[in-house]
Amino acid sequence: MSGELLNYLQHIGITVCIYVLLCLSATVSVGLTGSFNLAFPGLALLGAYCSALISIHFAFPFEFCAILAAATGGLTGLLLSAVSNRLKGDYYALVTFGFNYVVLTIALNWETMTNGALGITNIPFESFLFQDTNQSKTFILLGLISALSVIIVYKVKWSPLGRVLASIRDDELSCIATGRDTYYFKNVSAFYSGVLAGLSGSLYAHVISYVDPFSFGLHDLVFVLGAVFLGGVKSVGGSVLGAFILTIIPELLRFLYLPASVLGPLRQMIYSVTLILIIWFRPTGLFAKGGD
Amino acid sequence: MGVFEAFPQLFLNTLITGGLYALLGFGFSLTLNAVRILPFFFGGVSLIGAYMMHLLRDVYDLSIFVALLLSVCSTVIFNILLNNFLFRQFRQKKASSFNMIVVGIAIGIFIENLLLLSFGPDVKTIPLPRFQASFEIFGGYITLIQLIIALASLPILGLSLYIFYKRFCGISLRALIDQPEMAQVLGLNAEKAFLLIFTVVGIIAGLSGILYGAEYNIEPFVGVSLTIKAFVATVIGGKDVVPAAILGGYLLGAIENLASFYLPSSFKEGISFVTMFIFLLFKPNGLVSLKLREETAG
Question: To 5 degrees, how large is the angle CA B217–CA B222–CA B223?
């Protein structure tokens, strides 16, 4: 295998790893709990900025920044959920959707901190575990982190907590009737979802070494929802596969040698059409087990 | 300059932006209540109207009225296609409400990128040179096109309200909004009503998009921001009462203008959301709400 091809594959692999984490964040809130939480791009953006600023100003190693970013994402998600969780489904979706715009507005306008629309450049990537990082090591590190996250989310899904969340998703009223505080459990799920989103943002910031207010936004919302619905809303492995498929399909478009001004919009159109078609023909997703 | 000296200008600005938001909010609220979907694509559809107007005026150089008619027709046709080819199918499949939200977002993104692909990312304008003359009212300045924006929403909204409350088709529509099953049992044709709704919303969306484009610059990304304004107007007005969105639109216009007097104008997007958060927390049913509705709202 030539070095160039290996580099290219590793690059795709790194992108997949970052988006797998974001998809897991959506799976935890949308798939496992059934709450219409659309805040994950905003939380990822928050995590990215948080991680970038900490590593620039305090020169902490990457792992430490990532943990702090994940905590920030989780706590913000928890706060947002605690404030708006009692709203009915559609309106909760809209409030969390609106949160993305609040983060975007702050990132654009707090220029002394975030450097406005220009974004933060030259974010260091100094790992504690791997000295002098190169692309292969980055890929291995990200692969480990996302594999670990997949395993944890899978374990959570079949844990007692996961079963309570599933019962909230399937029939919230009967879950309340059995004495569960659904408000509390929804907040817990929003916290986990926020942790994963913040982690994904942090990885993005350090690996790409650049973050601007448009790094995470509406386009990621469609990508992630597309991936999650493609693989099956309720299945953890399905959303990972969905992230793979949706990353690889537009990569194939590259070989058509279209100009970048066509490629970007075309990619988004593919995602949105995929999303509509999946919900039209198989709303449970491609890899969901029959019945649910 | 203090707020009191600037008051006449702020008042006029409120009328202009408020009129626009009222129009957008009314269309949004109508779709939300009648069809029971969150129309995330609403701003995108109005932007289609604005871009068509730009195309017909700037590129093909048609006269204003022909261009206006054709661009409103385009948004109506787009809306009807959406209804017939997408939403009718989803209604028959009984898609869950979250799936409908996701479909709405997907359509919105699709429209945005379609416009980006066909018109490019740069800023476009709708040239209306004869309407740029400015004059003074109550010590504030206003251009002719702004005056039209401030006033245009009134006859459109008035006509809609008249149809909505006095004409048979409007009353049957309200029956369908209140009690969908009962109205259908009594022989009202829901599909026909949905078609009517999407047509009316198409007209409102097209007109508001064109008015927006005449006053501000149009870019493909503006669609989302228009949707947000419409949604916030709907929420703070009262999401269960369709005409309340008009009130909400004017209130949102007033809040935005007052806030942009004190803060940099780039905070506008954030301000509308903060307003919405506050309303959802303390008055989740909005300014105007029906007590009875709370039990039946699902």
Answer: 130
Best of B109, B116, B234 to disrupt the A interface (most A CBs within 10 Å) is: B109
Can you spell out the DSSP letters for B215-281? HS-B-TTHHHHHHHHHHHHHHHH-TTSTTHHHHHHHHHHHHHHHHHHHS-GGGHHHHHHHHHHHHHH
Which structure tokens are listed for A121? 């450049």
Report how far apart, in Å, the C-alpha atoms of A45 and of each of A131, A141, A220, B9, B266 are.
27, 21, 11, 38, 19
**A18-22, A169-173, A252-256: the lowest-pLDDT one:** A252-256
**Which residue is listed with tokens 């928890």?**
A78
Nearest to B102 among A99, A273, A275 (CB): A275
**B132-163: per-residue pLDDT in tens?**
777 777 777 778 888 888 887 788 778 888 88
Residues of chain B that touch chain A, judged by Cβ-Cβ distance less than 8 Å: 38, 86, 89-90, 93, 95-99, 101-103, 105-107, 109-110, 112-114, 116-117, 120-121, 224, 228, 231, 235, 239, 264, 266-267, 269-270, 273-274, 276-277, 280-281, 284, 297
Q: What is the pLDDT of residues B26-72, one digit of tens each?
A: 999 888 888 878 888 999 999 999 999 999 988 888 888 888 899 99
Beta-carbon contacts of A121 under 8 Å, excluding residues fewer than 6 positions away, are: A209, A210
Q: Residue A232: what are its φ and ψ, rounded to 5°? A: 115, 120
| 3-state DSSP assignment of residue B133 | coil
Name, in order, each residue with C-beta under 8 angstroms of A148's C-beta and a sequence gap of 6 or more.
none
Tokens of B56: 């017909």
Using CB atoms within 10 Å of the CB of residue A32, give its burial: 0 to 12 exposed, 13 to 18 middle, 19+ buried. Answer: buried
Low-confidence ranges of chain B (pLDDT < 70): 1-3, 265-266, 290-298
Measure the CA–CA gap between A239 and A23, rounded to whole angstroms. Answer: 6
Residue pointed to by tokens 């926020």: A194
| Chain A neighbors of B276, CB-CB under 8 A | 95, 98
Q: How many CB atoms are located within 10 Å of the residue B181 CB?
A: 9
Give me the half-sphere count of Cα atoms (radius 13 Å) on the Cβ side of residue B75: 31
What's the ipTM? 0.85
For A98, which of B38, B95, B273 is closest by C-beta distance? B273
The per-residue pLDDT for range A95-146, each reduced to its tens digit, is: 888 888 888 888 888 888 888 888 888 888 877 777 666 778 888 888 999 9
